[in-house]
Amino acid sequence: MSASSESAAPRTVLVTWVDFPGEDSPEVRRLQEVGLELRRAPRLRDRSVDEVIRLARGCEAAIVSTDPFPREFFEAVPEMRVISRVGVGSDSIDLKAAEEHGVAVAIARGTNEEAVADHTIGLMLAVLRKIPAMDASVRHEEWRRTEPWLGSDLHGKTVGLLGLGRIARLVAERLAGFGVQIIGYDPYAVPPPAVRAADFDEVISGADILSLHLPLTPETRGCIGRDEIARMRPGAILINTSRGGVVDEAVLSEALREGRITGAGLDVFSEEPPVHSPLLGLTRSTVLTPHIGGLSREAIVDMVAHATDAVVDVMNGRKPRDVVNSPHPPPWEAGLLARADSGGHTERNES
């Protein structure tokens, strides 16, 4: 094989996002134009770090779901230069280790916040009005319209927001038409005009509906535990569309079974799928969805395009938008420009 044909061999991008579009899509064509072939390995289940390492060997880029990327990964795959999340969370990636190994980590900021805010309101209404339980009842040829089947109004309630980032602010905007009082706590953000600032304890104890909008960090992991749930108002409901690890699900399940709080709507879980969660049996007091809050059809189109942009930028020697770490050296300055000859692309599927 000649040196010129050898230099034309395409680089590889690992794609674990399950809904990444097909071969004729603009996204695939853009990756091919910068000399990348796709190695598809859709994330259909939890995978071990060893599995992810095996799939990623030889890849300089990755467009990923929530697979684990700890320090061990970066030590085992030194050729990796950019990991682009189809989503806004980065808690499954060791950002410090990525920095030290010169790997940029980009997220799709600004692409799915509206979808998550919509889903948050949907969960509030579904839990308050017991919509899933009513639906199941009607399908079983029942007609239950009295206690204990009656739901509650959203109007007149106090909604507490823990975390006041972009999603929480959009939730507050949507709540404006429901005639609610909104209180919120965030040590790093000033509340928007519709939200009254309160401390952490007041939001926990003063809310009829407690809605979580927290990143998963060492400080927030398990922050809604036994003491916090015990301080919630009797009859309150809990909504979580942020990260599962912030809530102690065993304690929450216990409080729901004992009737100390009325209900919960959760889109995220400490284990996903939540096959061992004690919440699964609480069909009348909980509404559970499969971490789909940010996955509307429109949001997915935007997230995939954003994630593709990040990889293309690095391969073209540009810093991507929304890099959430500071890699040394920056991979977009490390001679990773796409080759002029990008022919001979192939596409593989691995699982």
TrEMBL record:
<dbReference type="InterPro" id="IPR006139">
    <property type="entry name" value="D-isomer_2_OHA_DH_cat_dom"/>
</dbReference>
<protein>
    <submittedName>
        <fullName>Phosphoglycerate dehydrogenase</fullName>
    </submittedName>
</protein>
<feature type="compositionally biased region" description="Basic and acidic residues">
    <location>
        <begin position="342"/>
        <end position="351"/>
    </location>
</feature>
<dbReference type="GO" id="GO:0051287">
    <property type="term" value="F:NAD binding"/>
</dbReference>
<feature type="domain" description="D-isomer specific 2-hydroxyacid dehydrogenase catalytic">
    <location>
        <begin position="28"/>
        <end position="325"/>
    </location>
</feature>
<dbReference type="GO" id="GO:0030267">
    <property type="term" value="F:glyoxylate reductase (NADPH) activity"/>
</dbReference>
<dbReference type="InterPro" id="IPR006140">
    <property type="entry name" value="D-isomer_DH_NAD-bd"/>
</dbReference>
<keyword id="KW-0520">NAD</keyword>
<dbReference type="GO" id="GO:0005829">
    <property type="term" value="C:cytosol"/>
</dbReference>
<feature type="region of interest" description="Disordered">
    <location>
        <begin position="322"/>
        <end position="351"/>
    </location>
</feature>
<dbReference type="InterPro" id="IPR036291">
    <property type="entry name" value="NAD(P)-bd_dom_sf"/>
</dbReference>
<dbReference type="GO" id="GO:0016618">
    <property type="term" value="F:hydroxypyruvate reductase [NAD(P)H] activity"/>
</dbReference>
<dbReference type="Pfam" id="PF00389">
    <property type="entry name" value="2-Hacid_dh"/>
</dbReference>
<comment type="similarity">
    <text>Belongs to the D-isomer specific 2-hydroxyacid dehydrogenase family.</text>
</comment>
<dbReference type="InterPro" id="IPR050223">
    <property type="entry name" value="D-isomer_2-hydroxyacid_DH"/>
</dbReference>
<dbReference type="Pfam" id="PF02826">
    <property type="entry name" value="2-Hacid_dh_C"/>
</dbReference>
<keyword id="KW-0560">Oxidoreductase</keyword>
<dbReference type="InterPro" id="IPR029753">
    <property type="entry name" value="D-isomer_DH_CS"/>
</dbReference>
<feature type="domain" description="D-isomer specific 2-hydroxyacid dehydrogenase NAD-binding">
    <location>
        <begin position="121"/>
        <end position="293"/>
    </location>
</feature>
